[in-house]
Amino acid sequence: MTATTVESRPNGTTLGPASVTIATRTLRRFIRTPQLLVVSTIQGAMFLLIFRYVFGGAIATSGVPYVDFLVPGYVTTSVLFVGTATAAGVAEDLEQGFLDRLRSLPIPRAAVLVGRVLADSGMLAWNLAITVAVGFAVGFRLHGTLLEGIGAFALCLAFGFAFTWLFVAIGLVAGNAQAAQGMSLMVFPLTFVSSAYVPADSMPGWLRVAADHQPVTAMVDAVRGLCLGDATASQVTAALAWSAALIAVFAPLAVARFRRS
After folding, report:
1. Which of 65, 113, 150, 152 is deepest in the core (most CB within 10 A)?
2. Is residue 79 pLDDT above 70, yes or no?
3. Looking at the predicted structure, is the pLDDT value of residue 21 above 50?
4. Could you tell me where the DSSP H helices lie in 97-214?
């Protein structure tokens, strides 16, 4: 056994401690590459400003200023922008042998991926917080209670955690970072065929059916409802159900793919 392996061995061999150890190591790698934090932060702010000031004047929403309509939708869909980096990062780690080093340790195979997802969820929380701050800076105001606002933020984190499993699976299948980035872009039509940026009832009938029956719309409606103070229990339940379904489908697929690779 090499000295490197001994140093890398997690303190525990069960899923929980091993996942936390790997998540901590992954976060340290992120911190050593501050460009990732800076670029993702600037990118998120830039697109929010474009939607707010370039498109905002041309889109009408009934009963609520467009900025208050836009920001909850944009914050929710920003989890997909962050997920692109997850897919590329997983593919790069696999290609360079980093995941193989982790897999050689006496820990559950699933801990390698759970740790990665936890680390990316931590990065997601940072990006969401910055995006929310920019949203308030450009005029967004919370119409619901502070508790509802915290609940909306927590829903975005849950949604991001669920979609991170999808992007991890993409990264494992893609083979290299470039392919993973391209494949992850196939998810982005969900953000535009949704109620994130325009009211779904403004779409053609056939497109509205698609928008109303996909996970992004369910999550956006719940987050926006909490921010505006008029969320219903059915909206929150639908958002949580979609998140649970995404995890139930893509977490086992990602782990199975990792074991075979």
Report:
1. 113
2. yes
3. yes
4. 98-103, 109-137, 146-174, 177-184, 189-192, 205-212
Torsion of CA 76, 167, 105, 9, to 10 degrees: -30
Question: Of how many residues is the chain composed?
Answer: 261
Q: Which two tokens stand for residue 186?
A: 């196939």
Residue 2, pLDDT score: 40
Enter the pTM of the model. Answer: 0.85
Q: What is the pLDDT of residues 87-136, one digit of tens each?
A: 888 888 888 877 777 777 777 778 889 988 999 998 899 889 999 999 99
User: What's CA 181's distance to the chain center, in Å?
Assistant: 15
The secondary structure of 91-126 as a DSSP string is HHHHHHTHHHHHHTSSS-HHHHHHHHHHHHHHHHHH
Angle, vertex CA 159, rays to CA 157 and CA 161, nearest 5: 70
Tokens 């719940």 map to which residue?
222
pLDDT top residue among 89 and 153: 153
Ramachandran sector of residue 164 (left: φ over 0; alpha: ψ -120 to 50; beta: rest):
alpha
Which among 109, 104, 84 has a CA at the least distance from the CA of 187? 84
Alpha-carbon dihedral sign for residues 150, 226, 195, 51: negative
Written as six digits, the tokens of 232 are 């219903």
Burial track 72-109 (b if 16+ CB lie within 10 A, e otherwise): bbbbbbbbbbbbbbbbbbbbbbbeeebbeebbebebbe
pLDDT at 99: 76
The pLDDT value given to residue 104:
75
Between CA 160 and CA 78 the distance in angstroms is 9
Q: Distance (Å, rounded) from C-alpha 83 to C-alpha 168?
A: 8
